[in-house]
Structure formats: structure tokens, C-alpha cells
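Hypothesis: this fold can be encoded by more than one sequence.
Test: take the C-alpha cells below, design a sequence, compare later.
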């Protein structure tokens, strides 16, 4: 008889959370791999959404493309966060409903729980305790970004084990060697053989796709290089096949790309993918929640993005500070940024459709840097969007932050927590108001 494995997407404990094309993609690919090896796979999604009205709050444009809100129950904040003047809570399905769903499932041999952000571990811990009450003695294993970046902290929590990598081959090796779970993944290509198991998800208003792993850059404030060794690209033909398979099986119109470096080597991979999609003349809508690299955007790629149906376009600029830009290995400069914007405009994108990521809270930036960057973006007729800096373990900035603030708890990696403890909350609020005003004008 095939072994039964329960995969779990836990609650989020935080100040804010929104379904911004957020699916546990790695977990759903893993489900497909396990099925291929003969396992019976169950899926418990604590962040499950539906089409009901209670899930339809947020920006109208994002709601149209499948995004939406999670239910929230306000809870007392952890002791560490008592000084943060925001309301903490649990996002997702109620514990009572989760409890009933678990009782209806057959007991598994293993439970695999993912955890995205390092500071979301309370949600993984909470669902682990609940599952332990219903299935006593069943090993509960933790995976995802949190144990990969904070292995020592994760090993101290209430789990039988933790997978301390997110690279597919390394994950498969750990599961096999330590717990005898044969995933059957010997290469990254093996991991992506089949589309993610979206049939396990009860509501699919959109789908997500990833065409590469890692990033060629090593930005000092980013943990990508700790999560993935090097940069790896999927064959574009396989990505194309997956998009159409998902569209046919689930009727999905909206697709969001998860890549950290979507345009890197884009002429050889992303461009032919766009050309193939455009030839099919399907009514797709594509979205780029992650900022794309301006340096790699060419007129031909921009033109094909428009023809293929891209609706949400975000470019990463991060700052106009020459000191910071020069320290990041020439990833972007103002000339390449403006050239990229011109490519998009010439391809038919309106300027009010182009959002620009600016980084807020980086210790090396000052108030004047934020104001100058926002003013520069608005002067080009574009929309500035500040993205809050979140200190991550293994990055050079974090050691200084930890020494200054004397923190070693992953809850302090939370971008909202860091915003208040760094003393920048008032400035950020002001800049956000200016951004909202510029949108309405």
C-alpha cells in the first residue's frame, strides 16, 4: 500500500498579509513528484481562499486578476513585539475548520509543513501542534525558506526534523537519507517534470510559474545566494508546455512569474517563450510581482511582453543613490533604467501602468535618498512603490542591525517590526501618502 503524506501550507501570523499571487509553489511541485513515485498525497491549506465576498477586499485592479484578502483574527502579539503599535493576528482559515478538515483525512505516515518568511514560523509551529494532537506519533517535518535561513532556530522548534535547503535536489536528498521519503529527484529537471499539483487547491483564480531558480547577482541585502547556489534556467519549451497544460485543465487566465531574474539571458529563453505564447493568441494575462532587471530589458522583449498579454509590470530601481547602486555590481544605473522604461513605452505600455520598486529601510540609505528617488520616478511619469527592507540572516546588513538592536529572534526580521524599531515609520507613512496622492492626480 502506498504511503500517505500530508503537505501543509500553514497560517500566517503577522501585521499584514494579502494573497498577492501567493501559492506554495514548491510544495505543489513536490506533491507532483511524490505522486509520480506512488505516494498518496493530501494537502491542507490554512490560507485557503474562495470566491466569497469576504475574500474580495483590496485594490480593485488586483482583485480583477485573482488576488484577494485572507480572513484575520486579531491576537495578542508575542512578547518580543509588544512595543510595535500595529495589530497582530492570524491570517487564514479558523482553527476549528482546520481541525474538522484534519479529522476527515486518513492519518498520514508523514506530515511536511512549509514555511516561507523566517518570521512566519509561529504559524508553522501552531499548525504542527494541532496536527500532533490529531495524529500523535506521526513525524512532522519542516521545510521552506525559514529553516533554510535559520536552521539552528528551526531545530529548536516543535518538529521532528527540518529540511535546511530549498534547492530541489538537496531537499530530495534530505528527505530520502533522513526519513526514507523517496522523492525521485536527481536533477532540477526531474523536479519540474510535471506541473504543480493545482488540483489539490480548492480555488484557483490564478496560477504561478517559475522559469528559473536563483539570481546571478549577489546583492548585499538579499538572501537569494544563500538559498540557491548559482543560477539555473528551465528550458523555455517546458515552461510553455506547463502554462498551456494548466490553462487547459483549470481554465486559468492569470499567470504570475515568480522568478528573481526573469530577464537574465532573456534573449535565449524568455523571448522565445513570449513569441510562442503570442503565436497562440490566447487571452492570457501575465503579471510580474517581482521587479524585473532594467539592464536586460530590450525593445524586442518589451514588444513581445505587450503582445503576450503582460498586465502587471514592475521594474526594480531600489534607489537613485550612486553610492548604493555602484556597490551592487552594476546591476542597474539610471541610464539603463530610463532605457528600459522607454522600451516599455515604445512597446505600448502606458506610463501609469509601470510601477517602480524602491527600497525603503536599508541602513545605508537616508531620508534624502528616499525623497530624491520618489521625485525622480514621478518626474518620469511612473509610479514609485516603496518596498520595505526586511533584515535577513546571512546578509552583511543584518550583523550590524543585530549588534545595534541586540536581536537574534526571527520575528525581528519582519519588515513592519524593523520599520518601527529603526525609527522610520513616520517617514514611511509620509512617503506612502505622497505616493497615494500621485496615483490619484
Amino acid at each position: 500500500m502506498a504511503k500517505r503524506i500530508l503537505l501543509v501550507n500553514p497560517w500566517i501570523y503577522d501585521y499584514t498579509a494579502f494573497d498577492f499571487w501567493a501559492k506554495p509553489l514548491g510544495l505543489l511541485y513536490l506533491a507532483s513528484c511524490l505522486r509520480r513515485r506512488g505516494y498518496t498525497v493530501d494537502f491542507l491549506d490554512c490560507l485557503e481562499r474562495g470566491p466569497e465576498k469576504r475574500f474580495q477586499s483590496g485594490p480593485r485592479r488586483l482583485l480583477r486578476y485573482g488576488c484577494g484578502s485572507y480572513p484575520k483574527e486579531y491576537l495578542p502579539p508575542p512578547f518580543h513585539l509588544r512595543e510595535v503599535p500595529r495589530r497582530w493576528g492570524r491570517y487564514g482559515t479558523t482553527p476549528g475548520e482546520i481541525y474538522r478538515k484534519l479529522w476527515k483525512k486518513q492519518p498520514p505516515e508523514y506530515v511536511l509543513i512549509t514555511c516561507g518568511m523566517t518570521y512566519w514560523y509561529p504559524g508553522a509551529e501552531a499548525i504542527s501542534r494541532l496536527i500532533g494532537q490529531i495524529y500523535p506519533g506521526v513525524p512532522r517535518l519542516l521545510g521552506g525558506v525559514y529553516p533554510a535561513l535559520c536552521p539552528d532556530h528551526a531545530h529548536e522548534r516543535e518538529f521532528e526534523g527540518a529540511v535546511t535547503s530549498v534547492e530541489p535536489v538537496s531537499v530530495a536528498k534530505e528527505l530520502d537519507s533522513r526519513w526514507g521519503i523517496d522523492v525521485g529527484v536527481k536533477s532540477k529537471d526531474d523536479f519540474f517534470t510535471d506541473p504543480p499539483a493545482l488540483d489539490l487547491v480548492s480555488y484557483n483564480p490564478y496560477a504561478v510559474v517559475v522559469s528559473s531558480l536563483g539570481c546571478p547577482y549577489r546583492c548585499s541585502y538579499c538572501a537569494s545566494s544563500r538559498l540557491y547556489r548559482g543560477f539555473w534556467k528551465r528550458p523555455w519549451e517546458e515552461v510553455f508546455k506547463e502554462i498551456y497544460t494548466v490553462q487547459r485543465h483549470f481554465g486559468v487566465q492569470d499567470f504570475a512569474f515568480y522568478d528573481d531574474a526573469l530577464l537574465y539571458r532573456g534573449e535565449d529563453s524568455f523571448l522565445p517563450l513570449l513569441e510562442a505564447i503570442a503565436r497562440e493568441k490566447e487571452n492570457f494575462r501575465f503579471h510580474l510581482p517581482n521587479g524585473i532587471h532594467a539592464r536586460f530589458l530590450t525593445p524586442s522583449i518589451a514588444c513581445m511582453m505587450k503582445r503576450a498579454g503582460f498586465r502587471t509590470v514592475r521594474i526594480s530601481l531600489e534607489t537613485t543613490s550612486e553610492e548604493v547602486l555602484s556597490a551592487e555590481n552594476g546591476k542597474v544605473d539610471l541610464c539603463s533604467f530610463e532605457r528600459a522604461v522607454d522600451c516599455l513605452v515604445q512597446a505600448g505600455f502606458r506610463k501609469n501602468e509601470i510601477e517602480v520598486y524602491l527600497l525603503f529601510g536599508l541602513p545605508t540609505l537616508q531620508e534624502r535618498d528616499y525623497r530624491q528617488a520618489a521625485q525622480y520616478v514621478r518626474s518620469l511619469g511612473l509610479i514609485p512603490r516603496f518596498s520595505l527592507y526586511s533584515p535577513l540572516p546571512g546578509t552583511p546588513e543584518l550583523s550590524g542591525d543585530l549588534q545595534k538592536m541586540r536581536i537574534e529572534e526571527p520575528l525581528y526580521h519582519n519588515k513592519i517590526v524593523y520599520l518601527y524599531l529603526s525609527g522610520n515609520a513616520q517617514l514611511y507613512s509620509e512617503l506612502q501618502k505622497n505616493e497615494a496622492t500621485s496615483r490619484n492626480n
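The chain has a mean pLDDT of 91. The longest strand covers residues 310-318.
Hypothesis status: open.
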